[in-house]
Amino acid sequence: MPDTTRIQGPLGIIAGRGPLPCVLAEAAIAREIPLHIVGIRGEAREDIERFPHTWIKWGEIGKMFRALEKNGCGDLVIIGGVNRPDFGNIRFDLGAIKTVPFILSLGQGGDDHVLSRIVQFFEDEGYRVHGAGDVAPELLAGEGSLSAKGPSVEEQADIHIAMKVVRALGPLDVGQAAVVAKGHVIAVEAAEGTDAMLQRCADLRRLGRTRGARSGVLVKAPKPGQEERVDMPTIGPETVRKAAAAGLAGIAVAAGHVLMAERAATIEAANEAKLFLVGEPWDDNGAREPSNLD
Amino acid sequence: MPDTTRIQGPLGIIAGRGPLPCVLAEAAIAREIPLHIVGIRGEAREDIERFPHTWIKWGEIGKMFRALEKNGCGDLVIIGGVNRPDFGNIRFDLGAIKTVPFILSLGQGGDDHVLSRIVQFFEDEGYRVHGAGDVAPELLAGEGSLSAKGPSVEEQADIHIAMKVVRALGPLDVGQAAVVAKGHVIAVEAAEGTDAMLQRCADLRRLGRTRGARSGVLVKAPKPGQEERVDMPTIGPETVRKAAAAGLAGIAVAAGHVLMAERAATIEAANEAKLFLVGEPWDDNGAREPSNLD
Asked: Which residue of B has its CA nearest to A196?
């Protein structure tokens, strides 16, 4: 579950792609937390201009730190995905010099390693880095049934197997998602991302390699030890529509550990497609709590 | 390692797709083992007609048993993949009646479950079912470097991670293969098969989601407890060419547990593409033997 860290002063939001940065900004304002958004050009939506903000380009590290400092932001949330930048074409500003050893250290290892290093980098500079769920717990998927429909006993068994797959791979820094139908593991996510994995499930279904009518579940959960402050699994209406297109019966997420920023739209999409959407208990060690299926 | 079961009389070969049935028949003839091939129409190559044979259609179970009986085949090898048949369009012969409870039992569970049940079905009828490697150990990939090139230390570390991925998922009846590049797990195989997984790696490379020039390894290994007599992982020249197209540096297989029927062509393809091809020690419990990387 999210920790209850209090934000001590103005909140800095380093904004990447998607709706999350603005959703978080609204949640902060609702709590009367002052904020300043630093938007990465080509990644963050123009929408951030509704809030106090500064635009930076990749490499303008000095400009970023000046904006945070000027606005008194000692607390940070880094949110919204970014495309892997083309390091060869980045023009670094003077303030970026101190980041050179850091950037050189990013070349090796899995995603989780890179993201942990990014958090470490900001912490070394004296910032307190929070997850979006620490600031606004309502952005996390909660426990229990979120949709009108719930999983059947058979679907609950599929959820259980998919959770085991994700849990088995977590220590190897792999994926956050798997698809299981009728006891059969259909797909495991690695570098391709959830959307590509769901597309593959849709293709397999067309080829008749999966059996029966609508069946199967998508499970999303964090990797054990995953840096959830900057890399929490997310789910939105588009995930639901793609799961429906892949012929799945529903989606289960690790409660308290998956961001669902567009909550109403996500639940509406599930109900519209007649998919179930459920939050499963998940303890902080990444292990699923015992259920009657264990 | 392959067991040394002796074939006691004429060998029955139930033949599915690909070159394996004929390669096995030739290996049996070289050992002066008499044989009879039962080819599944639409699956086995016409090539089997070079050997004593009977063609059957899906559902002609009675005809299959009569052919095996008439030719005195108490020993069986079931070899070559099949497409999942469209059960609704199969016309069962009279001899198939006893298979109805068996077929109804196949609906649930992963591939491994289905294949174990098939072996059980033939054993219940009194047949001795062997793996191709039991009859002809030279069809299995051996230990050590098979290609001119060997893996670098970094590539050896990638092999180690990919072996761990396959090992972690085995108990969940998932996949037999994974791709790892520079410590990063790129892809994990589930229902889509190795070719589709390699295609995905090629796509990810084009999108720039994997880094650097030629790098990464494909690892193929059996699942622990996998029914290796009917479902051993296979590798051939086409696998090598697809791994090269995906920009990988090489391939590692579990020595003694992966079929390499077209041995010369597979090694030639590896040398031509400058890929390494190596057999890694793998014990019978599915665990990799300790190496200096553990």
From this structure: B200
Tell me: do A253 and A184 sit in the same domain. Answer: yes
Judgement on whether residues A132 and A144 belong to the same structural domain of the protein:
no
Judgement on whether residues B70 and B187 belong to the same structural domain of the protein: no
Give Cβ neighbours of residue B72 (< 8 Å, ≥ 6 apart).
Answer: B9, B10
CB-based contact (8 Å) between A214 and chain B? no
Contact at CB, B107 and A190, closer than 8 angstroms = no
Provide the pLDDT for residue A147: 94
- Higher local confidence (pLDDT), B231 or A249: A249
Choosing among B106, B179, B192, B217, which should be mutated to test the A contact, i.e. which has the most A CBs within 10 A?
B192
Query: Does A57 lie in the same domain as A28?
Result: yes
Do B122 and B148 lie in a common domain? no
Mean local confidence (pLDDT), B232-240:
92
B218 in any annotated domain? yes
CA of A140 to nearest chain B CA: how many angstroms apart? 27
CATH code of residue B183 = 3.40.140.80
Q: Considering the domain boundaries, does residue B187 fall inside one?
A: yes
Question: B209 in contact with A at a CB cutoff of 8 Å?
Answer: yes
Do both B132 and B184 map to the same domain? no
Average pLDDT in the B84-95 region? 71
Residues A241 and A267 in one domain: yes
Say yes or no to pLDDT of B180 above 80: yes
Q: What share of chain B is helix, strand, coil (3-state, %, to 5)?
A: 40, 20, 45
The rounded average pLDDT for each run of 10 residues, N- to C-terminus, in chain A (294 residues) is 62 92 94 95 94 92 93 93 69 73 62 74 91 91 93 96 90 87 92 92 77 83 81 91 96 94 93 96 58 38
Question: How high is the ipTM of this complex?
Answer: 0.75
Residues 76-105 of A with CB under 8 A from B: 84, 86
Q: Domain of B158?
A: 140-280
Q: Which helix (H) or strand (E) holds B36?
A: strand B35-40
Mean pLDDT across chain B, nearest whole number? Answer: 85
In-domain check, residue B3: no
A188 Cβ under 8 Å from any chain B Cβ: yes
Total structural domains within chain B = 2
Q: What is the pLDDT of residues B13-58, one digit of tens each?
A: 999 988 899 999 999 999 999 999 999 998 999 999 999 999 998 8
